[in-house]
Amino acid sequence: MNLDSHILTIITFIPLAGAILLALLPDRGKLMQWGALAVTLITFVATLHLPAHFVYGISGYQFDQNLQWIASPNIHYHLGVDGLSMWLVVLTGFLAPLGVLISWNTISARKKTFYVLFLLQQVAMVGVFTSLDLFQYYAYWELSLVPMTILIATFGRTSNRRWAALKYFLYAFIPSAILLVGVLWVYAQTGTFDLPTIQSIVATHTLSNNPHALWLASLAFLLAFAVKVPVFPLHGWLADAISEAPTAAVMVLTGKLGLYSILRFSFGIFPDQAHCIAPWMIALGAIGIVYGGLLAITQNDLKRLAAFATLSALSFITLGIFTFTVSGLDGGIFHILSESISGAALFMLMGLLYERYGTYDIRELGGLAQKLPWIVTMFVITGLSVVGLPMLNNFVGEFLILSGTMQSAIAHHVGFAVLATTGVILSASYMLWMIQRVFYGNLGTKSASTKTWDLDLREHIALWPTVALFLAMGVASPFWIKAIDQAGTALADKPAAAPSPIKKVETETYTPVAATTEAR
């Protein structure tokens, strides 16, 4: 068997087979934890086949598997990855065993339900990143909503969990229904759901002669993806969902699916509309950076602080990818990876504090540095990663994004770059102040009265891989950028549409795109 042509199917369905197996096994002792850990480790090892056999310097999708599924409508089982999606699949595989390890003791009831849902969430995420058929992609996109909603509603930490789950579901589901309309419109125009075929049609500028329909369809796609990121001001679900969701779920909750989908589908199917709306998205990204940072500073709850810090970081990525410069796109894609790893480490550490003290309230903590030397060490290292210290992972993405913003003709001036740069200052402010209050401030009521323990072996095993990646991605970023740059360059080079023969005004609409390409 040629493993290259089947590896994506294997990666996708290992966690599905694991979820079915766990559902059939009795929920006794640590059986669910060990079973989920084994499944996620096998999946992660399988994902390493992708970078080991990825061929650099060629365009198009690799590890392609394309089978006819349904004749009418024309639906294919089509999988493939490129420089954009390959590392996202590996990232999904990497975070899953860490989520199992960090949940080992915190999930003590309904363990079977938790780990089956967690594995199904992994299936959905890998499916989103690898599907090249719009129908198949939409099925995985919708599937990703179900396990996460149930995880929040069932395993949330307060009585507010059901409201947080409902809010998350409604925010994500309603735009997804609009997305389905857009997908069906694209099929009506092209007669296919196959993404490479649709992209080849778009390259000839013949998707539709109706510019208004094109705009509505592009907005249907963009709205669904922007809510899932979330892009400011569509973040109403974020703080409640992150506050309630268990740590393992939070680690995969935000950013990755929405940002990937914007890059793959909004930019791939509607490049000209994406260029035209880019100035607005750049402005929203810059505002979101500052807005998220300012709200993070005011928080006394660790989870809500991390939620708004996440909004600020995701706004950085939104800013970068909509510059349509190679630096901005490369930095944005790289920052999806680096921010996900830093955020995962931060949420794991916050979860460990909650496991020990039963609170996320900073005012009830304080003076923990002497009691928990390993935890404070990990917090400081992770905090430095989050704020973008040079030589660590987040610095690379932020530097490329700001550089791309300065180069972008779409931004028209350096104002947005300057505004975004203040986010670096704000991130240092809220992260270092949080560490000072939790670990070096006066003893709080919880920290003074509770006897606890430092990191154990399992927690060391969960945290040290992320710390190793902080340094590796900071000093050896070309290892990741090599594949990412192929996708970034292709997206930045995407040409403007030919002037419409219907109205002369269409020529004026596409002029900024040409200017952007020349500037790059």
Provide an overview of this structure:
- By secondary structure, this protein is mainly alpha-helical.
- The protein has one domain (3-493).
- 71% of the residues lie in helices and 3% in strands.
- The protein has helices at residues 7-24, 31-47, 49-53, 86-102, 111-130, 134-143, 145-155, 161-190, 195-203, 211-228, 238-244, 247-250, 256-269, 271-297, 302-321, 326-357, 373-386, 393-407, 415-440, 445-449, 457-475, 478-492, 505-519, and strands spanning 62-70, 75-81.
- A two-stranded antiparallel ribbon has the order 1-2.
- It is globular and about 70 Å long.
- It starts with 6 loop residues before the first helix and ends with a helix.
- The relative contact order is 0.10.
- Residues 495-520 have low confidence and may be disordered.
* Strand neighbour order, sheet with most strands: 1-2
**H/E order of the elements?**
HHHEEHHHHHHHHHHHHHHHHHHHH
Distance between the termini: 44 Å
Number of domains: 1
Estimated helix fraction: over 70%
GO cellular component, one term: membrane
Subcellular location: Endomembrane system; Membrane
Domain NADH:quinone oxidoreductase/Mrp antiporter transmembrane: 131-420
Transmembrane segments: 6-25, 37-58, 84-102, 114-132, 138-156, 168-188, 213-238, 250-271, 277-298, 305-326, 332-354, 374-396, 416-440, 461-481
